[in-house]
Design brief:
Elements (H helix, E strand, L loop, with lengths): L1 E6 L4 H10 L5 E7 L2 H10 L7 E4 L5 H10 L6 E7 L15 H25 L5 E6 L12 H20 L5 E8 L5 H14 L3 H9 L10 H12 L9 E5 L7
Parallel strand pairs: 1-2, 1-4, 2-3, 4-5, 5-6, 6-7
């Protein structure tokens, strides 16, 4: 049975990806995140529930992540893919309450720790190709005022993707990042509400304004992201590596 680790599995895109991947009888999922109650709720929704496990970890702490891996007996599991999806959003501003360290610790350092702690198991797998997939953002493509830490952290993941894709190519580990735009998640809703509060208007008005900047005038659904992850991990392709893959309704076009 193939094991796939998902960080940030308790909500949003992580949850939707777990739901999609659990449809495969030969897949065992390790759901990782900060809140065990959220992970357990997702676990209860999955197909073939007996194949999966939920583990609470702090991805920004290598000791916590390593302990979490050890607790699920990874030596007995064929770990073939990591979806390093955990992250936080929001604004930051220089000063005593600056969230710079907090955001980079989770989004950039936490992703790096997740990959490095999982890497020995990926290398040990006998699968022909293995996968590392990170969640970056379309905000890695362009700047947004007041989001300096978030934009920096997500841009850093694209550099990490390219470097590791070359470094791990001989191990047949494909390394990519997703660059979502607006996705219908709690984080996105909080972002819209923050903008609404700043402009002194209601949520729906602000939502409509933001969608007006998006060519397809919509947010992606978390399930669409899950379907893309499913394809990338499916074995139907073994050629995509070192890429930032945009899924953002046309918000960024290359």
């Amino acid at each position: 049975m193939k094991t796939i680790l998902i960080t940030g599995a308790g909500t949003g895109m992580g949850r939707a990806t777990a739901q999609t991947l659990s449809q495969h009888k030969d897949v065992s999922l390790v759901l990782m995140g900060r809140r065990k109650d959220k992970l357990d709720a997702v676990l209860a929704e999955l197909n073939h529930q007996e194949n999966h496990v939920a583990v609470s970890v702090d991805i920004g702490n290598r000791t916590s992540f390593r302990k979490g891996l050890t607790s699920i007996s990874p030596e007995e599991r064929d770990i073939v893919a990591l979806f390093a999806n955990a992250g936080i959003g929001g604004e930051n501003a220089y000063g005593d309450d600056d969230r710079w360290d907090e955001i980079l610790r989770t989004n950039l350092n936490g992703t790096y720790i997740s990959i490095m702690e999982t890497l020995p198991y990926l290398k040990a797998s006998k699968q022909a190709f293995k996968h590392i997939l990170m969640t970056s953002s379309c905000l890695a493509r362009f700047g947004v005022p007041n989001y300096t830490a978030y934009c920096t952290s997500k841009t850093g993941l694209l550099g990490l993707t390219r470097s590791l894709a070359v470094e791990l190519a001989s191990d047949k580990i494909l390394v990519n990042s997703l660059c979502p735009g607006w996705v219908e998640t709690e984080m996105a809703q909080q972002g819209i509400q923050l903008l609404a509060d700043r402009m002194g208007q209601d949520y729906q008005t602000t939502y409509d304004q933001q969608m007006g900047f998006v060519p397809l005038e919509r947010m992606s659904l978390p399930q669409e992201v899950g379907n893309l992850v499913d394809f990338l991990f499916s074995g139907k392709q073994n050629s995509i590596s070192g890429q930032g893959i945009d899924i953002n309704n046309g918000s960024w076009m290359q």
